[in-house]
Each structure stands twice: as structure tokens, then as C-alpha cells.
Amino acid sequence: MVRQSVVALWLGIAAGVAAIGEEPPAINPFGPRQETREDALPGYVELSDGKVYAGQVYLTRDARLQIFDGEMQRQREVPLNAISKIECRVDKEWQEREWRFRENANDEKVYTGRSYPARIYSYILTLKNGQKISGPLSGILYVAPEGEAKPVKLLLHKRDKGEFGMDLSSLVYVRSAEFGEEALRRGKAAAKRASAAAAKR
After folding, report:
1. Is 190 helix (H, G, I), strand (E, B) or coil?
2. How far from chain centre, in Å, is Cα 178?
3. Across 59-194, where does the E strand assignment appear?
4. Where are the alpha helices (DSSP H) in 37-138?
């Protein structure tokens, strides 16, 4: 009896599909999957090396950007959906030299010949109401470009350093980020230009 009911159910579904005149779309189990986050904002992020990532931008779930407000002299938490633009300022940058003691019982230090790049950053947040907040900031931005299976993870630093042998230009950072449909449109155009320029090199 149960088997007859199941068969009847499948026949009914088949008849319904035939009546509609089209088959359901095929699902590729090996195709890229990308879940759209409900808290994501359209926009783009530009890096210091000229790369641009345009798509849906979001933070770690339930997180806010932590910024020390220089004017108010206190830590503030700002939700991403309250921000229209993020701009990074390089407050200081230098090549840090590696030093070591000449001998175990000697206080004299000698330069090893190795160095690494280092930077200190601050940021300007422009809120949707026009207010600006500036100061050191830390956080993680994720950008999910259209058609990509995985989002791009980008760090916002208070300070950063590279590996030995790197120069300052190799220490890439988030230069700016903008949000909104118009920003997404401009970001896509900028990403295409950056990709074309990189292909010509």
C-alpha cells in the first residue's frame, strides 16, 4: 500500500512537470557554491598594489569595526552598515634592521644585514550620516566577488610588518573601501582596468 502511494506521488509529480512543459534546472554538485550573507553590503576594496575586489563586503558574523576615536579619546564599535567609506592613512613606515649581540658576554650589537618593512596605520571612517571618525583600527573585511567560490579575506591593521628581505612596496595593505550600489559599479569597472593592466605587464 505504501509502495503504491509512493508510485502515485511520483507519477503526480511527473505529470505536473509535463503539464508545465519544462524540466527543473540541473544542479551541478561540483560547481562553485557561494552563500550570500544577509549582512553583506555591495561595494569594493582597493589595495595599495592597485588590486580591486568588487562584490559583497562583510565582517566576521556579529562583529563590528573597532576604532579608537582620536577626537573623543575612547574606543568605539561601528557596524559596517553605518559606514559609507573607509580610508587608510600610513602614519609611519620604515625598514627595520635586524641586530644581534656580537658575543654572548658583550653588549655591543651588530647589524646582521637583514631587514624587513614595517608600518603604522590609522583610518578615517565616513559614516552614512556624513560624520567622520579617525584613529587606529583593527578588523577583517571579507569580499565575495561575483562568480567566485570563496570570499577574499583582507586585514585592517594598526601596525604590520613583512618578512626579511621584503621592501615597503611588497607590504600590501587595504587602501580604501566604499559601500553602496554605485560604489559596486565603480569597483567592478576599476577591477577590470586593474586586471587588464596586470595582464599587459
Report:
1. helix
2. 12
3. 65-69, 74-78, 83-101, 109-127, 132-135, 137-144, 152-156, 159-161, 174-179
4. none
CA-nearest of 105, 139, 98 to 121 is 139
DSSP type of residue 147: T
Grid cell at residue 157: 591593521
* Whole-number Å distance between alpha carbons of 11 and 24: 16
Q: What is the pLDDT of residues 150-195, one digit of tens each?
A: 999 999 999 999 999 999 999 999 999 999 999 999 999 999 988 8
**Tens-place pLDDT, residues 58-68:** 999 889 999 99
Q: List C-alpha distances in Å: 52 to 48, 150, 173.
A: 9, 16, 12
* Residue whose C-alpha cell is 590609522: 122
Tens-place pLDDT, residues 86-119:
999 999 999 999 888 877 667 788 888 899 999 9
